Amino acid sequence: MSRRLDDLQRAVGHQFGDEKLLYRALSHRSWIAESSDEISNERLEFLGDAILGWVVADLVYSEFEDWDEGRLTDLRKSVVNAAALAEIAREINLGESLLLGNGEDAAGGRDKESILSDALEAVFGAVYVDAGSAKAFEVVQRLIAPWLSDAPSRLDRLDQKSTLQELLASLGRRSPSYVLTSRGPDHDKEFTATVLVDDEVLGTGVGRSKKIAEQQAAGEAIDRLNSADHA
Q: Which end of the chain, N or C, is more open, meaning fewer C-beta atoms within 10 Å of its C-beta?
């Protein structure tokens, strides 16, 4: 266990002054139920969740200066979620160091999304308690930065198009189709997307990429459908 904790501290980027904090951050409630330990990682998880939200909000606010509040919120959500946090936890092999009860361990708990994401947040909380806010910010930024840099492209693939698909389904309507046109030279193209449902034009969008144009078209369609619904 000592070797695994050393490896994890190197991966996290912080050497704990009080290693018991890290031990607690890794202590799942199933471990508490089957051991003499009395405190799980849940309180540290609570603290780490708040720290994570603060750091990511600071980072997206500073880095994406032209984005509005709604877009920043979507960007934050694309990083601060169980799936993303679990992947980060896997990258640093956090699962190997988890303290789990025998049943949870046998059931594959070391790779469960919820357990990994909660434990990573608990580690963030433990860093804060051990070394303060500046170090906690540094650790979160170091681990989150690669995901944050890729987040805008993930948003372009999802968000508005997925929301439109779900909205249409809830209204009992067919799935949308997108018609794309472009103009300009290859190095400086501008794309126009039109979104149609049953040959009805619901929205158009313009952008420097097909994805951006489709996102804008989907957003306009959502606004139109919502306005009609509340008319």
A: C
Q: Does domain 2-151 have CATH number 1.10.1520.10?
A: yes
Domain boundaries, the chain: 2-151, 160-229
Which residues are the active-site residues?
A: 49, 121
Structure confidence by residue, pLDDT tens digits, 181-218: 998 887 678 899 999 999 999 999 888 788 778 988 99
pTM as predicted:
0.68
* Per-residue pLDDT tens over the stretch 111-162: 998 899 999 999 999 999 999 999 999 999 999 988 887 777 666 555 688 8
CATH topology of domain 160-229: Double Stranded RNA Binding Domain (3.30.160)
Q: Which two tokens stand for residue 53?
A: 């939200």
Distances (CA, A) of 87 to 9, 41, 147, 154: 17, 19, 10, 15
What 3-state class would DSSP assign to 130? helix
